[in-house]
Amino acid sequence: MEELIVVDNKDNPIGTAEKMDVHRRGLLHRAFSIFVWRHADDPEILLQQRALEKYHSPGLWTNTCCGHPLVHESTQSAAERRLFEEMGFTQPLQEIGVFHYRALLENDLIENEIDHVFVGEYQSQPINPSSAEVAGYQWVKVSDLAKDIQTNPTKYTAWLEKAFQVFQERNR
Fold first, then answer.
1. Nearest-angstrom CA–CA distance, 39 and 81
2. Is the separation of the CB atoms in 157 and 64 below 8 Å?
3. For the purposes of burial, counting CB atoms within 10 Å of the CB of 44, is it exposed (0-12), middle (13-18) or buried (19 or more)?
4. How many domains does the chain have?
């Protein structure tokens, strides 16, 4: 049973609750989103397609990795842990911003998160994603992703657009 950190609207911890209970009740909780990018003529972001077995948003495309810190785990440590667990590589990450979003999902679940956005520049490690977490991955030009989110929003997770806005603001 995974316990998540329940927070107030200023991201102060106010308790814990079981992961599925948090999402059934729509409790505000702490989360993170990671963008791994590589520099090219037009910078690219590593996107993942969520595994088809995920409890919500299966098969949708999203940022490189996302998750929730465990109780007594820093958000930074959690981001580094989950990057390895989901994508099979490690690298330095830097927090660049925070946003709040709330979204109604399938299966009567609710995401209500204070989401910390982390970035890291790809260091050419082998990518070895977990099949339990990731159905596929691809590098996408930042400029192409911005257009496609607007054109095909249902292809992406509920949080990607807001997390991507934080990424873009930081990298202008």
1. 24
2. no
3. buried
4. 1
**How does DSSP classify residue 56?**
S
Which residue type sits at 121?
Answer: E
- 66 vs 31: CA distance, rounded Å: 7
The token pair at 113 is: 């998160």
Is residue 66 annotated as a catalytic residue, yes or no? yes
Catalytic residue chosen out of the listed positions 66, 80, 111, 133: 66
What is the C-alpha separation between 62 and 97, in angstroms, rounded? 17
Cα–Cα distance, 76 to 94 (Å, whole number): 8
From 44, 111, 113, 133, the catalytic residue: 113
Assign residue 37 the CATH number of its domain. 3.90.79.10
Is pTM beyond 0.85? Reply is yes
3-state secondary structure of 117: strand
pLDDT tens, position by position, 86-136: 999 999 999 999 999 999 998 899 999 999 999 999 988 899 999 999 999
Distance CA 118, CA 102 (A): 19
* Residue 129 belongs to domain spanning: 3-170
Place of tokens 């991955």: 137
